[in-house]
Specification:
With 663 residues, the protein is an alpha/beta fold. The protein is built from 23 helices and twelve strands. Helix content is 62%, strand content 10%. It is elongated and about 110 Å long.
């Protein structure tokens, strides 16, 4: 029962993705078999195949503590164990960010735990991922639910430290619990980060689940805010129906979540959990529906979203209903509606990204190959007409066709020379275009920023260092964008002339959008603002946290800069690829055509045998055309969500007639 809809959608998505991979591999083989492969086409195909290989699906659960995040994960994914596999209950249970995944490289299930003391070092979580010896390894018996539950409880372990130690590790003292056994100490999580790998159908299919603690963790682990959450396809922001939107809920929403909802690749959902806690069994149905509707409307006003963008659910009731096998109770928990939303919208976003990043370009390349085959077929038909004509007519037509073919051969030979010249011009202009954005310049910016941040622990000095870093990146990126705008008309002119001379329909050529990367940089700078406004307090109490945040901000900015540089270089290399593919395939066709025409002029050849050979060649071409059209059809195949014509993600009819069973 658990995750049936999501599992079904993921199965369909993975099958669709495998079919895309199969068609790409098939096209690569076809290009090689027919001697029309080149380095540029191979690089494009390899990039597309690597994108499919690296594809994964990430689902993150975010919210203040005691909002039921872990309970919802148990209900959605692990109810078949018949118990709460992940520790959940009253109070704080998830004490550190936890990733649930399936590690295909590992020979056994495991829990890897990063000690909280690593916060004292100031190094990023990403750097520690590369140092396995810094993690505590706990073996996991995935076949025994009781042993799994016991092992998972390790993630919730606490340790007692002095307030000064806690502050040095980045914790806000006022948010920590006192140690009842030692009043002079406070309790902090024992672990900084947890990674749990075990064999579960959805995890094996590529799903990664991120369970986060409350505001304290989001405030202390910058990579959660700047890296892990932005990479998720879906983010569930949990609220409690009994408390509505608290001040800390609103702080998390405004500082960490709200802006992510604007990203095309990320679905953000507000989940009003624990609705069973406000359902009064002594009141009538309409009264309870009004109460829940009022809470929902109030939450929507505070979050500045529409009421129907908040989904109601009871994770506890959903989990218990599945353990009991009680379908009526399950429906009353609203869990099926949430599952339906996730299965539809999360998959839809993934499918859209694959369509955009992989299928579009390969589809254009396949159409180019199809046009070449059709023209080759026309040539073979013309040769057949010559062979079947009277001998006198045959010689006349043969001379005419040979002359025309030589003329076209010279034309495409000249075109290839001109295209190579055009490419040199584009690359020459491109060298100037790329000058503003360069890894050497970035290294210098990083060096300057690091030096400034190390030498200045004043608010003004640190803010100036970060501002200078962002200013340098944006200046370089904006200058590259301005230079790219000057090259774009040259590219358009090259395509227009080529298309006009051949009388062909416009070709679709690679585009580059600098604005997308500049916007990402601006978003990062804006997101860092809320942290930087609290620098005074952090410098006083949490220097290690300040250092980690500033380091993460700089690293994320550097990542955007490097991605921008790679995208610009890729565009320069690929921008004329459709023209080269067309000209090279046409020239290859004409070379073969002329060779055959010359053979036809051999008086000693048996015309009947040659007719038979040409008819066999025509059949082979027809088979190739069918094969290419079949590959085009395979890439055109609608993604599973579009096949099923699902409607999403507007949430309606959230309030049927729940009547929670008293336990």
């Amino acid at each position: 029962m658990e995750s049936a809809r999501l599992s079904s959608q993921m199965d369909a998505y993975l099958q669709w993705r495998q079919e895309i991979h199969r068609e790409l591999t098939r096209y690569r083989g076809w290009l090689i078999d027919h001697n029309v492969q080149n380095a540029e086409l191979e690089a494009k195909l390899e990039q597309a195949l690597q994108t499919l290989k690296d594809d994964k699906i990430t689902l993150a659960f975010v919210g203040e503590f005691s909002r039921g995040k872990t309970e919802l994960i148990n209900a959605l994914f692990f109810s078949h164990y018949g118990t709460r596999i992940l520790p959940s209950g009253a109070g704080r249970t998830t004490m550190c960010p936890t990733e649930l995944l399936f590690d295909h490289r590992a020979s056994e299930s495991y829990i890897r735990l990063l000690p909280i003391e690593t916060r004292m070092v100031g190094s990023s979580l990403a750097s520690f991922r590369k140092i396995p010896e810094k993690w505590v390894f706990v073996p996991l018996n995935a076949d025994d639910p009781r042993m799994m539950k016991k092992a998972f409880s390790e993630v919730a372990q606490l340790k007692s430290v002095s307030p000064n130690e806690a502050s040095a590790m980045g914790f806000q003292i006022d948010l920590l619990e006192k140690d009842v056994n030692n009043a002079s100490k406070v309790l902090i999580p024992a672990w900084r980060h947890a990674m749990i790998s075990f064999d579960h159908p959805l995890l094996r299919q590529g799903l990664t689940i991120i369970d986060t603690p409350g505001l304290n963790a989001l405030g202390c682990e910058p990579e959660l805010t700047f890296s892990l959450l932005p990479e998720a396809q879906s983010i569930l922001f949990l609220l409690s129906a009994s408390s509505g939107v608290s001040a800390t809920d609103l702080d998390i929403w405004n500082r960490h979540i709200r802006d992510l909802a604007l990203r095309e690749s990320t679905g953000v959902y507000a989940i009003l959990n624990k609705v069973d806690s406000v359902w009064d069994e002594l009141e009538d149905e309409q009264f309870n529906k009004r109460v829940l509707g009022d809470i929902r409307a109030q939450c929507a006003r505070q979050l500045a979203i529409a009421p129907d963008e908040i989904l109601c659910v009871s994770a506890k009731e959903g989990l218990l209903a599945q353990v009991e096998g009680n379908m009526t109770r399950l429906d009353q928990s609203f869990l099926p509606e949430l599952e339906e939303l996730l299965s539809n919208d999360m998959m839809r976003r993934k499918e859209h990204l694959i369509q955009k990043s992989v299928i579009k370009d390969i589809h254009s390349m396949l159409h180019g190959s199809r046009k070449t085959l059709l023209r080759r077929r026309e040539s073979v038909l013309a040769e057949l007409r010559v062979l079947k004509a009277e001998e006198s007519d045959r010689k006349s037509q043969l001379e005419k066709m040979l002359s025309q073919a030589r003329h076209e051969q010279a034309f495409y030979h000249k075109k290839l020379i001109l295209l190579k010249s055009s490419r040199k011009m584009i690359l020459r202009e491109g060298t100037a275009m790329l000058e503003p954005v360069h890894s050497d310049k970035l290294n210098q910016y990083l060096k300057d920023a690091g030096k400034a941040l190390t030498s200045s622990w004043t608010i003004v000095g640190m803010n100036n260092a970060i501002d200078s870093f962002f200013d340098n990146l944006k200046r370089d990126m904006s200058e590259l964008a301005a230079r790219q705008e000057k090259i774009q008309p040259l590219v358009a002119d090259i395509y227009a002339k080529y298309e006009a001379e051949l009388g062909m329909a416009p070709l679709d050529y690679p585009r580059f959008s600098p604005r997308e990367y500049v916007t990402h940089l601006d978003d990062l700078r804006t997101k860092s603002g809320s942290f930087r406004r609290n620098l005074r307090k952090l410098l006083t109490e949490q220097k290690a946290t300040s250092k980690r945040f500033l380091s993460t901000i700089v690293n994320e900015g550097s990542t955007i800069y490097r991605q921008y540089e790679r995208a610009a270089k890729s565009w320069l290399n690929d921008v004329l690829l459709p023209l080269f593919q067309n000209a090279q395939e046409q020239k290859h066709l004409l070379d073969e055509h002329i060779q055959k025409l010359r053979a036809l002029g051999n008086a000693d050849d048996n015309a009947e045998q040659r007719i038979s050979n040409m008819e066999s060649m025509l059949e082979d071409l027809d088979e190739q055309i069918v094969e290419v059209e079949d590959m085009i059809k395979g890439l055109r195949k609608p993604a599973p969500i579009h096949q099923n014509r699902k409607v999403f993600p507007v949430i309606t009819s959230q309030l049927p007639d729940p009547s929670f069973t008293r336990r």
